[in-house]
Amino acid sequence: MARVGSPAKLELSFLSSPLTLQFVFGKRTATITIPPFVLLLMVIAVGTGYGLARLNFGQRVKLQAQEIATLREHNQWLEHDLYEKRAELVRVAALADSRSQELWTELEVRHAELTLLWKQLGREQRRPAVRRPALAARSGRPVRYGLLQRQFGQLQVQLAATITESERLQQVARAHQQAQRAAERARRARAIPAGPPCSGEMTSPYGLRTHPIYGTGRLHSGCDFTTDYGTEIRATGEGTVVTSDWLGGYGQVVEIDHGDGLRTLYAHCSQLKVTKGQRVQRGQPIATVGSTGLASGPHCHYEVHFQGKAVDPKSYLPKLEARPNKPKPKATWLQPLLDVWAEF
């Protein structure tokens, strides 16, 4: 124990006497004497400062390690967030591509509808052809969210404008179609036979009767209007002349096609005022009353045909009182000659 304790005493023995320091400045000498307790305080201060410095260094090392760990964790979070953002951007780009295709498909459909409406209206298309711009997702360029927003905005504006114009044109087309239907109804109304073909009295209605020339019972396929020779015969409806010529026992006839399977025939005319293919209006003079063909006197034989068959003109005439068909004596000795004449 004495060996262990004696060196400690020797080590601390310099504190038992003051410390003298001499400084020589040329010819002058400066002597500084440091008392032992001051020297002790200096040693304690140096040791304390060293310990505090080591403690401070350890704390700074720990703080730096914590900051590095925090930065690494934050960096990992940022990398994960960046990965999610990129994945989200890819999904948005794919969704934008799909939605843009839907928008452009609808836009092209609307454009086709507009083209059809313009054609129905008989006008040229005023809008330029639709051109589909390539999106960044399909063009290989880097996907930018702002660019996608602008492209979507342009698509929505174009689609809204196209829908607005389509609705406006649909209204115009509906009005045009209604006007066309009204015009067609008016044309059909003008084309339907109405009224008698000439002035005079209906002397022989539609139906079975005794033929005035043959003297035999036959179907009278029209009605006769007896009037003065040369009286004007007028078209009972708008149509196109399909026959304006001699037609056997009918003599000189005018036949008018009114459309929808309706035709009218005016027979035994003395003079024809229209030609084949001519368009005539209701009330327009087409011939004059005569007695050509197999006729017993001047009159207009008027027939109405529907789908190629003669029908009773009564439904196309106002309520007219017709004299009943009176039987006439049979002219049997003229029958062969009249048959030959009718065939001619």
Structural notes for this entry:
α2 packs parallel to α4. The strands form three sheets. Strands 3, 6, 7, 8, 9, 10, 11, 12, 13 and 14 form a ten-stranded antiparallel beta sheet that branches. The protein has a two-stranded antiparallel sheet with strand order 1-2. The protein is 45% helix and 23% strand. β13 (299-306) and β14 (309-311) form a beta hairpin. The model is unreliable at 1-10 and 321-333 (pLDDT under 50). Among the domains are: 109-191, no CATH class; 201-343, Distorted Sandwich (Glucose Permease (Domain IIA)). It has helices at 2-11, 36-121, 136-139, 145-191, 335-343; strands at 19-25, 28-34, 201-204, 207-210, 217-220, 223-226, 232-234, 239-246, 252-259, 262-272, 279-280, 285-289, 299-306, 309-311. With 344 residues, it is of the alpha+beta class. The longest helix has 86 residues, at 36-121.
In brief, what are we looking at here?
This protein is of the alpha+beta class and 344 residues long.
